[in-house]
């Protein structure tokens, strides 16, 4: 029989970052006298962090393959600049411009991936060069100045909300319904996974803990959408974010492509001798990063409603920090999309909470640095004990 | 030779790893001024014993007692054992290639004062030590510029610099050619005359016979016996090592050999970096259905390179030659094509090239053939589990679950996972490169049995091995390689260690 302490320890280890996130959120909820979880603030939190979370999703793939991408902030800025030229100066249709921007992101990713995968230059150097190169090109494209404003339809990417199909008055009914549906789907998936695990006699957590987990998931999702719906409902950006997270989590966990990415990071030589086209996988991961960096740049531009030369500054470090806080290994082969998202949220909640408390930017940086170090140290010490 | 002093005594040493008892009450007594050999099969526990002795496994992680000069020793790390003059030279040399000989000799033991290195002193002393070990190189030569044989001598010089009393050598001649080995052995005898004591771990029984004053035999983590000079014969040692006569080390099989289905003609490949060096030269060979074909050869003879270049050109540049399977000409530009055409290659280095140690067993088993457990590129976890579970039973992989991380398994079980992976890819030709390296006797036997079963099912097997008895015991036909060429083809009935060795050392030069 498992002792309760052991049980808690095992389950804690698996979801230690989720628990850390909850604790940090609670801490700031108390410190800010309840401001943190106010509907307006939660909405803000999502809008503020969406572009970092998207970068983190791309970054976790790069880091799983054993590489790193320092250029994503610059790439985001560059793509934002190009989008301003296309939409504002050339009056191009916003959707066409978005597609062009994403293609540019893919090309940039292919450019960097080529040097990493086929020429064998360490990604650190290639993307450091990319960081300088695309920051420079951003300045060239913008001639050192900001360009604004974007067409309204483009701004909606970041500051729009999904329409309420049910015409709720003081509350956004449609958002509530979506929340309910998602929570039910999540519960169904959890049950299915557990049944399969039982079928194959894997070790599972005890029933009461499982029900507690189901209940927490249900409560968390519905609480979240409830809070959102008392403000203006689900923001558009959350929909985009949700779709990206679900797709990438699925790809990494369930598909051959995902397995190949983990294998390349886990042991390049063994992967290659197992018939995996390792160079192509690496190239693909960088192209993907380029596209997501471009998307991130677009969202940031839409949020600021301007393309500025300093956009995206230090985004790469936030994204990388999110990935490592989320449990990825700096040596490759280990990491999850969900982990990276949780890591990004930990950073986001801290930023937001500290801002509400009026802690100055300089101290925020210092504290974030310590949290990053503590999170990774905790992870490594924990693994060593195992 | 009376009143000999016992320099080292290890009493009842027991060391356990999770799930394995690596050492079980081992005893060892080494007299002052002797060369003491330790023999045993791979995995018998020799290296573990030496790691206990040198403090790699710190006091407290094992039970038992170590007496050195009659003093009880409780080493917490290597430094403490080195302070007493116990120095170990590992199989993989611990030299820094980019530093000079002198810098390596005094690495961690720098000559100088107040943190400032006295280079003149360092180089002068290093020169003296090189003289002692008979190495004619300037102390300022970089390690990467001298061969393995000379590097070995530098290691010994390094040990001498630490005032070594007891020198432990783990397979010192494994990577050396005959002349370098001979030199090294002479040097050891010379140092012995000057009063040094040495423990030598070796597989080469003729060498042991040549220089050892005593032999302790270890089998399955237990001391079997210690032989004195007069009793040292190769047969006696082998009997002690295996614990049974040699005849049943290899499972019997009645070969049922069909037609030739796989042919390689005029196969050549060059070194990937030094593109002038031809590593494999005009190799032509064939394999028949249900046949186990061996490739014997010394290290560096081009065996592995031949196999890997066939397997989707995973080695070499400017590779030329023809591969025919069932009469059809094959073009295998990459590994995935090779797998598709029914070829599998089990690498000699399972940790580096065979497994993803941080992943679990089932993921490793399906890695090379994920399409078989996936639909529209989505992996079916249940099917994967069933496949893995099936191999776990079939191959007798000892693990509580196929969700276990591969890195936690023992060498033999890891090797079974690699084999499972390639059996699942369902090849017609299975190339096995040193499939039993570093695994224990029992697991070896199981792997031989699996090979035999595969051959009985009409597969062709190409076995690369450094262990001649293994090649002779298993193969129906043996090719011998030397310096990149096939120097001989020997049928099972004519195969003896002597004939193979003759071809292995033959060169056209």
TrEMBL record, chain A:
InterPro entries: ABC_transp_permease. Keywords: Cell inner membrane, Cell membrane, Membrane, Sugar transport, Transmembrane, Transmembrane helix, Transport. It is a multi-pass membrane protein. One of its GO terms (molecular function) is transmembrane transporter activity. The chain crosses the membrane at residues 42-63, 94-111, 118-142, 171-189, 210-228, 234-251, 281-300, 320-346. The keyword Chaperone does not apply. The keyword Membrane applies. Coiled coil: none annotated. GO terms for cellular component: plasma membrane. It is found in: Cell membrane. Part of the binding-protein-dependent transport system for D-xylose. Probably responsible for the translocation of the substrate across the membrane. This is Xylose transport system permease protein XylH. It comes from Evansella caseinilytica. The lineage of its organism: Bacteria, Bacillati, Bacillota, Bacilli, Bacillales.
UniProtKB/TrEMBL annotation, chain B:
One of its GO terms (molecular function) is ATP hydrolysis activity. Keywords: ATP-binding, Cell membrane, Membrane, Nucleotide-binding, Repeat, Sugar transport, Translocase, Transport. It is found in: Cell membrane. SUPFAM superfamilies: P-loop containing nucleoside triphosphate hydrolases. GO terms for cellular component: plasma membrane. Its main location: membrane. It is a peripheral membrane protein. NCBIfam families: GguA. This is Putative multiple sugar transport system ATP-binding protein. It comes from Evansella caseinilytica.
